[in-house]
Amino acid sequence: MNSLTLWRRQFDERWQAAKPRERLMVRLAVVAVGALLLWLIALAPALSTLKKAPADMDRLDRELQQMRQLAEQTQQYRQIVPVSADQSIAALRTATERLGPAAELTVTGAQAQLRLRGVPGAALTSWLIEARQTARARPQQAELQTGAQGYSGRLTVLLPAAPGA
Asked: Which helix (H) or strand (E) holds 158?
């Protein structure tokens, strides 16, 4: 006789020997434990998921919008006509001339360095926009201090790479 059959027989004997009230209490305990397990395993996690779903959907919608904006921006960047290194340098020199004697541009290879002495913030912002849009230069390093006269220091930008380089 295997142990499962023996255990089952012992259980049946004890069950038959138990008073009706004890049997009722055991049944109620089994139902309570079953209900608790049902709650913990099936219902509570599902309700928690339902509560979090609207917030998760909003977050995912925002992320999707950001991804769409980035994809659109990428498409716009792909459509931008590349400029030659000479055109880029010429655009930077023109933008630097607008800053006046407080700015000096030095071009070395694929980099250009702008030295500033008291340039107003609005003028520097305009130079950066023009450098990015017209010259296709990307800021690489900035060491700037602000003072009563404006910004002083240096700003290094990378010039666009030549095709095939």
From this structure: strand 151-158
